[in-house]
UniProtKB/TrEMBL annotation:
Family in the record: Belongs to the glycosyltransferase 1 family. Bacterial/plant glycogen synthase subfamily.
Keywords, comma-separated and alphabetical: Glycogen biosynthesis, Glycosyltransferase, Transferase
This protein's name: Glycogen synthase
Highest taxon above the source species: Bacteria
Domain Glycosyl transferase family: 290-429
Natural source organism: Rhodobium orientis
UniProt cross-references to PANTHER family, sorted A to Z: ALPHA AMYLASE DOMAIN-CONTAINING PROTEIN (PTHR45825:SF11), GRANULE-BOUND STARCH SYNTHASE 1, CHLOROPLASTIC/AMYLOPLASTIC (PTHR45825)
One BP annotation, GO: glycogen biosynthetic process
Domain Starch synthase catalytic, chain residue ranges per copy: 2-235
Reactions that this protein is recorded to catalyse: [(1->4)-alpha-D-glucosyl](n) + ADP-alpha-D-glucose = [(1->4)-alpha-D-glucosyl](n+1) + ADP + H(+)
Amino acid sequence: MRILFTASECFPLIKTGGLADVVGSLPPVLTGQGCDVRILIPGYREVMAKVANPRTVATIEDLFGSEATIRRADVGALSLLLLDAPHLFDRPGGPYTDDDKKDWPDNHRRFAALSMAAAMIARDGVDDWHPDIVHAHDWQAGLVPLYIKRLGADRPKTVFTIHNIAYQGNLPPSVLTELTLDSTEFTSDRLEYWGNISLLKAGILDADKVTTVSPTYAREIRTPQFGFGMEGVLNARSADLSGILNGIDETVWDPQADGQIAATYKRTQLKRRAENRHAVQDALGLERDPDAMLIAVISRLVHQKGLDILLETVPQIVARGGQLALLGSGDPGLEAGYRDAALQYPGRVGVRIGYDEELSHLIYAGADVMAIPSRFEPCGLTQLYALRYGAVPLVARTGGLEDTVIDANPAAMSARTATGFVFSPITAGELGFALERAFDLFADKPSWHMVQRRGMAQEVGWSLSAKSYMALYKGLLDTAS
């Protein structure tokens, strides 16, 4: 079974969020289950600089204004197809924004080109390789199913995965013809979305199957509260919509072999985490207090993540003798709020604005609690990394957080199945109550270690979910035959 992944990011080559981690970690597991997976991503300047001597396997004479080539390269266990289109991707800045964090004005052409390249590979193959299924990810690849559908009946099947429905690739109707779309496509039952074109809607409508990244999120996005206006479209496609939980790369995220932490350890060596705790405290200017419950946040600082309500609980955390370590960036108001908290509570609140992959590994290995108070969370990888490393997750009851964390209520504690703390509704008050429960359990070290060890034993890799994707793919091919 030959699968072409199409996405705008792939770790370790280019990453702005969890999409890259998924695209970089799922294909090797599928390969182990008998698939031949290749990953088509844009040849950003940063990507091309990291890949040595990629081999040209196809040339596109005119791809939205100039010639482009598709280059083949292997990076670790990943088989890559790089869309080398310098007029679209050879520039400074990030995948979507310039150095000033402003969206590139030609993003619609850039990602339509990625989708068009995927359709060309679907039609013609590349390097004597023809995909049976094309799996497109998020709005940047939203036109892939539409462009492939134009090929007629004799075409690969398509799967479209929604990683976060809040990001929809909305564009003015004036770019319709630029994207080789017909004016008849701009209707409410096709690509029109509140007066704009939606690339996300295109993917939802035209893919053979639609998935999202957790079972609970698949239900939530069919409601007005979480659907961001797409709930009607998703309900219309409910028979073809499923939620398959994300996993993590357990070779990259392994506390027994992680070269980016101060001390490696396994479930039976929880005392060794103290060395990592000290390293986190030193890195963020916190007191080396061995008795403090160290609460950590690794996140984008945006409204979705609920970090405004966590900020309200900082006095409570400090009053209970806890510490807070935050790594992230985003909304300037939230950045300023946490910086002010660090000034107000020196030695108890430590803040690093930005992102640091090595420091993130260390924080997972040293924190007692990982706080994730998201207002919505399609799946979340943070809680999965936390479980793997013995940092007890404290999460809002939503999306994949609900699907992956078992609350430490009396019944779960008695059954020895608890892995964290879950709160609802998502308010500062309820978060505060959850923190109280965490502080109380932290004082009972045998019970706390039981929760840590249970979390570290939980399956957080891709093995189960990869089987679900395999079943989805096989079902599509069986239908085709």
